[in-house]
Amino acid sequence: MNNYEIGRIYLGSGESKIAEKFLRKAVEENSNSANYWAAFGECLAVLGKYDNAKDALKKSLAIDSNQVKILLLLSQIYKELGEENKSVEYFMKAEEQNVAINEVYSIIGRFALNMNKLEEAEEYLKRALSLNPQNAKIYNTLALLARKSDIEQAIKLVKKALKLKPDSASFYFNLGNFYKFELKNYDEAIKYYEKSLELNSNSFTTWNNIGITYMGKGEYKKAEECILKSIEIAPVHFRAYYNLACLFSLQNKLDKALQYLEKSFELVPENICRKVPNDPDLHNLWEDYRVAHLLSKYCGE
Description:
By secondary structure, this protein is mainly α. The chain has 18 helices and no strands. It has helices at residues 3-12, 16-29, 34-46, 50-63, 68-80, 84-95, 101-114, 118-131, 136-146, 151-164, 169-182, 186-199, 204-216, 220-233, 238-250, 254-267, 269-275, 289-299. The two termini are 32 Å apart.
């Protein structure tokens, strides 16, 4: 797996700061890939690094000028920078690609959501929905937006999306997340994660999340099996290793916990250095001298 693929995994799981590191390496290794520059630019936009983002996105367009999503993202970035003329210019270029206007609004809405521009995201997504009320993806994106303020409404929206597109693994995954993280209803969460896995058994995030849900229920054997499956699918992502460290710590299996904790340190030391001292799931490790050694080795503490 190359740096671009690793970066995309982290970007897709919402860990943009980690994604930036790998995507930067990707464009340094291959500066002739439109996809590499596009992903790097999108990542920088999510992080609010707009000047750097537009430079990266323009490099992507110089290689492939027919990228509607990149044209629209550039339009959004120039809008954020207060350059209205440039914003309009790139919006019109996107329109020239003969994309349906509801799809244009949907793309802008998703970008705005990723950039944490919530009111703007809602405005464009509702415009898109008014033009195409049978678009399941828009309902799902509105659900992700509503999750931040009204979880019951979020659940209704994603269930509406599923009525329109009942074979979507990602919609079931989102329902699982709503029940797991917002409502703490682990049984319902597992039901929806399992349905998601029936449709896509190759999602490392779903295996990881169902694993930590079992961990929350104290079903440690099932949790271990699921999280190990996540590692099998995406061995470059730190989260499953870290979750296994927590799982074994809770069972006082300290040697195994330390083994997986060090692996997570190796992958993203800056993140793990912040997590370890404050995570109650690791409390059985806090007095172990080997943790102090890991902190000294990877964090300089």
